[in-house]
Structure formats: structure tokens, C-alpha cells
Design a protein that fits this description.
This protein is α+β, with helices and mostly antiparallel strands. Helices cover about 35% and strands about 30% of the residues. The chain is built from seven helices and 19 strands. It has helices at about 85-110, 135-150, 225-250, 255-290, 310-320, 355-365, 385-400; strands at about 15-25, 30-35, 50, 55-60, 70, 80-85, 115-120, 125-130, 155-160, 180-185, 190-195, 210-215, 220-225, 295, 300-305, 325-335, 335-345, 365-370, 375-380. A hairpin with a 2-residue loop joins strand 16 and strand 17 (about 335-345). Helix 1 packs across helix 2 (about 135-150), helix 4 crosses helix 5 (about 310-320) and helix 6 (about 355-365) runs antiparallel to helix 7.
């Protein structure tokens, strides 16, 4: 291992190096080594994890001069260090990155779609394509193509080339840097400049699975998983299906039909519930109207409930305004807020419900408004006496002005 940096050597798991420099960052101590097998975050790929002299490496990055720094959990002792790469994490990154190369190449070949950007995270990966839209039918064609190349176990090789030699490689995209370029080639299928870590053969990717398609910034974002991640995602989905099947006492193949049946039953129940609520609202409105005192040909209904859903008050107010000579001012306290609604019948056009609500909410420290026939508002929580006094006073003043 004579190279200064050899993080691109995918066979390197352990190495010995010497500390060249140290610094204290806001995140913790960091060291620069004379050589390293740790891959720094770059090109959409996350950094390697592992240890230096048993101290966990929390982050790896490249500074403006191209030097690689290792963020440590605690300071190192000594100048000579033994580094160890977390191989499970490294191999996962290799699977995801090589799979992304194949996915991007297949999108060009089958769809004429170029990759605009790539993100490879700890849980999922995405590629953004310059397509206005992408159907699942076309996406599955791409997925089948990628997995065909995986099954053929083609060689993945790396070559270094100067700018003048790049034309010989038929690159899928132009390099973002100049000078000596590192070219990653998938035998007979793709060549692209890249500094990341990759599997030596496509078969080591195992599997590529597309999991989501969405519109994104005028193009299409495709989410995918490779290798062990794809296997775990399939296992999770299977366990979920089995759990749902057990709860519904049907096989997984019968789940769509069972869910459709449940949805129809839920719609029927919802319709029945709404009808029952309407009937109850009509009965309650009648009861409130009959027990309200008759004053100059009008029935004034003022009421407050603790914790009653405001939607029920809205339904009740609509029923009351249909009854003759009725003005209703209803309130409910939900949590730390009071919500109000005022409604009056069309046979009392001179009374302004919006003015009532504005007056009451102002007195309670809130605000509201609406039409002369129906209005609503809200205010901070108050005690029952204060609320009822504000409602009645607002009605008194509005009725007086109307007269």
C-alpha cells in the first residue's frame, strides 16, 4: 500500500498510517493521515465508518485543498494509527453506488433519460431524471434491465485516464473535474467518471428494486434500493402483508379484495353515522327551540358545551336557523380555546350574526366574523360565566341596534 490515498481499493479493510495533522472542530477532534482507507462523503455517497486505534470515526470529509479529515469521537493517542473499516457499511455503499450506475445507464438506454442528481442515504437512494413523467410500466422495464445485467455478473473495473484519452471511453456523462480522471466501467454497458467505491462484479449488487416515483422540480425522482437493503425492504413488506392478512383472516393474495370490502363497509357506516348525526341534530334543535323563551316573536338560544366538537355546533346552528324566528349563539371550549357560532333565520334580516360574533370575540380577546346570516370565531379559554355573558351582551347590543 504505497499510495497516499487508497480508499478506492475495495479490498482494503484494515490499514496502518501516521497522523500528519490534527485540529479541533466545533463537532470534535479531527485528524489528517498520510494515507487512509476511509472514503469521504462525496458524489452523493456517504462516508465510511470504522475506527482509528479503536476510536470511532464519526465523519470523513475532503477540505478545499483535497485533504481528507477524519472526525473522531475522542482524541487519538500517538502518531501511528491502525485503521479499521466497518465492512458491512462499506459493502452496502458499494452495492448502492454500483447499482446507481447501472440504473442511470439503463434509463439512458431505454428511456433516453439523463440523471440530473443522485442522493444515497443511510436508508434509501434517489436519482433525479430529466423526464416530465415516468410510468410504473416503463420503470419496471428499467428495473428488469438492471437486474439482467446483475445476473450476468459483469466485471466492474477502474481506469485512470488523462483528458486527451477520455474520448476512448464513450462516457455516459462528462467529468466534473480536469486532469487525471478515474473512470468506472461496467463491462460492455457503462463508463462514467466517478471516485466512489464499487463492487468488482455486478452480481455482488444482488438485487435492485425501485420503490417510489414522484414528480420533482419539473422532472422525476426515482427511489431505489440495492442488495441487502432491498432484501430487508422486501422482508418488511412481506411481514406487513402477513400481519394485515392475519388481522383480516385472509391470505396475502386476497388482501386487495378484503381491503376493498372494508372500504365499502366503512363508507356505508360513515353514511349511516352522518344520517344519525343529522337526525340527532334535528331533534336537539327542536328541543332547544321549544324550550327557548319567546321574546317579541323571537326565540333566542344561547348555549355552551365543554369539549363538544365544533362541527356538531355548526350542524346544530344550520338546523336552528331553519326554524321560525330563531337566533342561536352557540359556543364550545376545546382545549385552551373557545369557538363560537351565531346563526339567525332568514325571517330576521335586521339582525347581523357577523356583528354579534365580532362583539363577543372582542370581549373575550379573540376575533371572528362572517355573513349577516351566519358567522363564527374564536378566543382564548374563559370561564363559563364570562363566555355566556359575552354571548348575551353581544346579542342584546345587536338586537337593540337592529331595532
Amino acid at each position: 500500500m504505497t499510495e497516499r490515498l487508497y480508499y478506492t481499493d475495495v479490498t482494503c479493510k484494515d490499514f496502518t498510517a501516521h497522523v500528519e495533522a490534527q485540529q479541533q472542530t466545533p463537532q470534535g477532534p479531527a485528524v489528517r493521515l498520510d494515507r487512509t482507507a476511509f472514503y469521504p462523503t462525496s458524489g452523493g455517497q456517504s462516508h465510511d465508518t470504522g475506527t482509528l486505534n479503536g476510536v470511532p470515526v464519526r465523519d470523513v470529509w475532503t477540505d478545499a485543498e483535497g485533504q481528507i479529515w477524519h472526525l473522531l469521537e475522542r482524541p487519538l493517542d500517538g502518531v501511528t494509527v491502525h485503521g479499521s473499516i466497518d465492512w458491512d457499511v462499506r459493502f452496502d455503499h458499494m452495492q448502492q453506488h454500483t447499482g446507481q450506475h447501472l440504473l442511470s445507464a439503463a434509463c439512458v438506454r431505454l428511456l433516453g433519460a439523463n440523471t440530473l442528481s443522485v442522493h444515497m442515504g443511510a436508508a434509501l437512494n434517489t436519482v433525479d431524471l430529466d423526464l416530465p413523467q415516468l410510468s410504473w410500466q416503463d420503470a419496471f422495464r428499467v428495473e428488469d434491465e438492471v437486474n439482467r445485467i446483475l445476473h450476468e455478473n459483469r466485471r466492474v473495473s477502474v481506469q485512470l485516464a488523462g483528458t486527451e484519452a477520455l474520448a476512448d471511453f464513450k462516457l455516459r456523462r462528462e467529468p466534473a473535474v480536469s486532469g487525471v480522471i478515474r473512470i468506472v466501467q461496467i463491462e460492455g454497458y457503462d463508463a462514467t467518471p466517478c471516485g466512489g467505491t464499487h463492487t468488482p462484479f455486478t452480481g455482488q449488487i444482488g438485487l435492485l428494486k425501485l420503490t417510489a416515483i414522484e414528480r420533482y422540480k419539473g422532472g422525476v425522482r426515482v427511489t431505489f434500493l440495492c442488495g441487502t437493503r432491498a432484501l430487508r425492504d422486501y422482508r418488511r413488506a412481506l411481514q406487513l402483508l402477513q400481519q394485515l392478512g392475519g388481522q383480516l383472516t385472509v391470505g396475502t393474495d386476497d388482501l386487495p379484495e378484503a381491503v376493498a370490502r372494508l372500504q365499502e363497509e366503512a363508507r356505508d357506516l360513515h353514511r349511516a353515522q352522518q344520517q344519525a348525526l343529522q337526525t340527532l341534530a334535528e331533534m336537539e334543535a327542536q328541543q332547544l327551540w321549544l324550550t327557548a323563551p319567546l321574546r317579541q316573536g323571537r326565540r333566542r338560544i344561547v348555549a355552551h358545551w365543554e369539549g363538544r366538537p365544533f362541527g356538531e355546533l355548526q350542524a346544530l346552528a344550520r338546523r336552528l336557523r331553519d326554524l321560525p324566528g330563531t337566533v342561536a349563539f352557540l359556543a364550545t371550549t376545546e382545549g385552551e380555546n373557545v369557538r363560537l357560532i351565531c346563526a339567525r333565520g332568514e325571517d330576521i334580516p335586521q339582525l347581523d350574526a357577523g356583528a354579534c360574533v365580532r362583539a363577543a370575540t372582542a370581549a373575550l380577546g379573540g376575533r371572528g366574523g362572517g355573513t349577516p346570516a351566519m358567522a363564527q370565531g374564536g378566543a382564548p379559554r374563559s370561564d363559563l360565566e364570562t363566555i355566556l355573558a359575552a354571548l348575551n351582551k353581544a346579542l342584546d347590543e345587536t338586537e337593540f341596534q337592529a331595532e
